[in-house]
Design brief:
The chain has three domains: about 1-75, Arc Repressor Mutant, subunit A, CATH 1.10.10.10; about 80-195 and about 365-375, Nucleotidyltransferase, domain 5 (2-Layer Sandwich), CATH 3.30.420.40; about 205-355, Nucleotidyltransferase, domain 5 (2-Layer Sandwich), CATH 3.30.420. The protein contains twelve helices and 17 strands. It has helices at about 1-25, 30-35, 40-55, 115-135, 175-180, 190-200, 260-270, 270-275, 280-285, 285-310, 325-340, 360-375, and strands at about 30, 55-60, 70-75, 80-90, 90-100, 105-110, 140-150, 155, 160, 185-190, 210-215, 220-225, 230, 245-250, 250-255, 315-320, 350-355. The strands form five sheets. The protein has a five-stranded mixed β-sheet with strand order 6-5-4-7-10. Helix 1 crosses helix 3 (about 40-55) and helix 4 (about 115-135) crosses helix 5 (about 175-180). The protein is globular and about 65 Å long. The protein starts with a helix and ends with a helix.
């Protein structure tokens, strides 16, 4: 029994290794997969044959040029299945439907006022149905739905435990309620953790094995990948960088009270809405906004450097709901601060980059959740 279990574990591990290589580098040859994974030629051939039989991988032609027999190219079959990602925040619901290669087939975004849990389920069901109707996907090929919102959460039980600024949301069984409403399996996760997965698979952190994603929204969230795997922690709520205590403006407070859309609005009041969508030229001419960015970045950069000193990251990706020019300005300021606090003479220091995906990054990461365990291999 032990030997059989070990054999099954090895097969599942090898399958995930090959799938991950095809996802990251396809079109790719069997020889390239063998060189990158360390599996034997026979091992790769066996796994590929099963994946082709399952319809997940397809042969799409042969290499051109070079010596000898042209090699067969392998890639994911995008039509083999679809997933939906749904993102619920206090003031918006966004959704995306993607094919097996992660290409979006439809997106939706709706501004809302914080709904009750029952009303949220209705809105999420309507968004899911609208995404199906707007795409060529069918429910028969729907692999699952990723659902993300702000923490704290209990993803294992599928419950929302009472996020700040979500009055009336205490121990809400959101995952099961949405699954019952739409009739397909649902995975629940923190929105920033899902956004980290979205950036690592499809965005600015693509290919990074060790990554911190910072999600700037109404609050400030974070997600962590270590050795290519989501790090969720003992309580499955790791990455809450917004709740790191910092000393700013003469007092101790959570980092998200210093760096977030809510912090920007507190600083500028009625002027904040215009500043949130400011162009790079407008930002450069606005002394008050420049001062806010420098102050916020000084605090944020010190915290991010501390995280890098502890975890030894490949990259720190800053994204979320900031408009592109404002996000670029924040990343520029933070990039100048972080090196001052990173440990000297290390062989590597994390780079700070701007997220490539904006409003839908959490929904895109959510759509990856049903595929995460299949495509990601253990280190």
């Amino acid at each position: 029994m032990a030997r059989a279990a070990r054999t099954d574990t090895i097969r599942a591990h090898n399958r995930a290794l090959v799938l991950e290589e095809v996802r990251l580098r396809g079109p790719v040859t069997r020889v390239e997969i063998r060189h990158r994974t360390g599996l034997t030629a026979a091992g790769v051939a066996g796994v590929v044959a099963r994946l082709v039989e399952e319809g997940l991988v397809r042969e799409i032609g042969r290499t051109a040029g070079g010596r000898g027999q042209p090699a067969t190219l392998l890639d994911l079959d995008p039509e083999a299945g679809f997933t939906v990602g749904l993102h619920l925040d206090r003031d918006l619901i966004s959704g995306t439907i993607v094919d097996l290669k992660g290409d979006a087939r439809g997106t939706l975004r709706s501004t809302i006022s914080l709904p009750t849990p029952d009303a949220a389920v209705d809105l999420l069901r309507e968004t899911y149905r609208s995404l199906l109707a707007s795409s060529r996907a069918t429910e028969g090929r729907m692999l699952g739905v990723g659902l993300v919102t702000v923490g704290p959460l209990d993803p294992e039980r599928g419950r929302v435990l009472g996020p700040p600024n979500f009055p009336g949301w205490s121990d809400v069984p959101l995952r099961d309620a949405v699954a019952d409403a739409i009739g397909v399996p649902v995975w629940l996760q923190n929105n920033a953790t899902a956004a980290a997965l979205g950036e690592a698979w499809y965005g600015a952190g693509r290919g990074a094995r060790n990554l911190l994603y910072v999600y700037v929204g109404l609050g400030l969230g974070g997600g962590v990948l270590l050795n290519g795997r989501l790090h969720v922690g003992t309580g499955r709520n790791a990455g809450e960088v917004g709740h790191v205590p910092v000393h700013a403006e003469g007092r101790w407070q959570p980092l998200e009270d210093v760096v977030s859309l809510r912090a920007l609005r507190a600083a500028f009041g009625d002027r904040a809405e215009r500043l949130e969508s400011a162009t790079s030229d407008e930002i450069a001419r606005h002394d008050g906004l420049q001062a806010w960015l420098r102050s916020a970045s000084e605090t944020l950069g010190a915290v991010l450097a501390g995280v890098d000193n502890v975890l030894d990251l490949d990259a720190i990706v800053i994204g979320g709901r900031l408009a592109p020019d404002l996000a670029a300005a924040l990343v520029h300021e933070v990039s100048a601060v972080v090196p001052r606090f990173q440990m000297r003479n290390r062989p590597h220091a994390a780079r700070v980059v701007q997220g490539l995906v904006r409003d839908d990054v959490a929904a895109l990461g959510a759509a990856a959740l049903p595929l995460y365990e299949v495509f990601s291999s253990e280190p």
